[in-house]
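Data card: per-record layout.
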Amino acid sequence: MSRKIETKKIIHKPATKEIFFSLSSMPQWSKILLEQKENAYTPFLKWLLDKDFLKGEKEISIKNIAKAFGADTVKVTKWITQIYEDILLLNEEQPELFKTEGTRHEMHFRYYDSYAFITIWLMSTPRLHEKFSFYFLQGRLGSNFFYVHDVEHIIGKGVHTVSIGLAAGFVNRYREQLVDRAEFEGMIDFGETLNPFTRDLDDKLRKWYR
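The structure for this 210-residue chain is written out next.
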């Protein structure tokens, strides 16, 4: 009996500076977090917002940020990561706090084995294969540009929600056609089409449709 070879997962491990710039792209979300319960990082977050995340500064580094605030680098590194993770968790648990004009969209982002779920309100729904840029997720996924690979409209309790599946990078329309063909011919199941980064799928498609 042959042993199944496990593929090593590709999970993005961000630098603290990468997370910092992700936070700076959506300062209004930091303000939402600040309105919640007090935390060890609260004074630091207030300072960052007052300073507009140091925009306009020539050289931004975690060391310089820590020095300007008056704390050691280890603490600032921890706070920046915690703020980012707390915003993601708050959005997942209390999405209504992030409500703006438009329709509720539940956005499922993926880059290889890294995944992020965000609920936002949009004035229009991104269409299949359209590009979608969202720098806030650079710190979670290692990418800030995506394309739409799945759109689903959901009606529940009188509320219209749109579920959007997005993958990092740019769409390969020829590959999408081959995936549809493989599913139609029963070569793959629907589950395999949900993750555009299924590692062995491209090899299978090349073998079947030379």
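Known properties of this structure: Residues 16-95 form one domain. The longest helix spans residues 73-93.

See the next section for split statistics.
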